[in-house]
Amino acid sequence: MSDDLQGHRQEIDRIDDQILRLLNERSKSVIEIGKLKKQRDAEAHLHTPAREAAIFERLSKQNTGPFPTDAIRAVYREIMSASLSLEGPQKVAYLGPRATFTHMACMQKFGSSAQYIPVNSIKDVFSEVERGRAHFGVVPIENTTEGVVNHTLDMFVDSSLLIYGEVLQEVAHHLMSKSGVAGDIKRVYSHPHAIAQCRNWLETNLPHVPVSEVASTARAAELSVDDPSAAAIASELASQLYGLKVITARIEDNINNFTRFLVLSQKAPERTGRDKTSLMLSVKDKVGALYDLLRPFASHGLNMTKIESRPSRRKAWEYIFFVDIEGHIDEERVKKAAEEVKSRCLFMKILGSYPAYS
Ligand SMILES: C=C(O[C@@H]1C=C(C(=O)O)C=C[C@H]1O)C(=O)O
């Protein structure tokens, strides 16, 4: 080994010793903050997304490189996740199984030190959080190609849970197998949605290989672990968790495929200054009712970022609308608009004010 290389490695060892010492010093403050939070409110959430967002932003702005700014988020995600686990376990229920895109969204939001509880249905995610068995729940709400997840919207009708945050997760499919050698593939497994999203690629690149549908992309990965002639279309996380090698990355036909997830909780998060508010409301069945109803948002200068409608399931042709606006319910103009809207509709429920994804 050259002296130069040796010298640089010694320098890295010296710096890593300092980083480790500093991480432990940082952890001591986190533990103290955890105690203070519990003194103030024994039931308080320890996870504080507003503070985490401020840390990400401050460090990203300050970074002069060459360490990549994008990586600061990933590194600090894990530092804060591990630190939080010192304040107490963060239990997160999500629509499983492991290694799905919901699991990836969870990791993006809570890091790998949280305690994850994969459950079988969106309804079960809600009930885990309602019963206090998990602090947070993560469910998909909409996808750029497949649209809104109706089941999640429907669950809000009878649930008292609040939206605590949102996560945007890119849906990128990879072809993977045990050996990582394309020539070994005799069969491809995946979830029907993933297969549909990679249809053109499969027809062009593996025209004679049979494709079988299974219950999830994670199940596809599991099947490929034991069968060297099988390949799975699954997430990057699946390749890591199941020890599979990626043969071809990003085989989805539409590379602009994102799913938006909601974080659910019994409590509201702190205001950040970059928040969104979600509301659910229903209107009387008469001409212009929806137009009248939404006018207060415009007159108070509030940007409406989304509106979805669902049949109310209580009365034929009665609809429930789900509306997202920019701003926090503690802001005067948002409060005023919400009061005006409420007076014009059959019922209105605030599903939460939470930090907009950044
Ligand atoms: C330490 C805190 O608690 C948690 C840990 C954080 C950290 O490691 O910096 C930041 C926010 C919280 O999710 C805090 O609220 O400041």
Automatic annotation (TrEMBL):
Protein name in UniProt: Bifunctional chorismate mutase/prephenate dehydratase
Site (Essential for prephenate dehydratase activity): T259
GO biological process, one term: L-phenylalanine biosynthetic process
Cleavable signal peptide: none
Domain ACT: 278-355
Organism: Nitrospira defluvii
Keyword field contains Ligase: no
Prephenate dehydratase domain span: 91-266
InterPro entries noted in UniProt: ACT-like_dom_sf (IPR045865), ACT_dom (IPR002912), Chor_mutase/pphenate_deHydtase (IPR008242), Chorismate_II_sf (IPR036263), CM_dom_sf (IPR036979), CM_II_prokaryot (IPR002701), G/b/e-P-prot_chorismate_mutase (IPR010957), Preph_deHydtase (IPR001086)
Presence of keyword Protein biosynthesis: no
